[in-house]
What does this fold into?
Amino acid sequence: CALPISPVISCNRHFVPKGNQSGFMEKFKEVRGLLEDFTKPYGVVGGWRIEKEDEEKEEWVLFSGFESVEDHMEFAKTEGFGKYREIVGFVSGFEVKHLRGVEAL
It folds into this structure.
């Protein structure tokens, strides 16, 4: 089942100190559905970065689709966001960037 191309893609880099990966993944699996429910009909996909910038940290990169940047910001105002935000306890920092979706690729 192919997902539609979203107008905006959120690229979220989560900097996870070594040793926190399993706790981070456990928590992310617990709260992932909150984000997936909000982004529908667009998808959520992530993975561990292979190239390291810092040997003391792992990096979880998450991509999710939204109608607009403002739509993404609305997620922070939802009731479920308080629970989703619990992943922050496993990271030393994070970065959010937004991209335009391109259908012709």
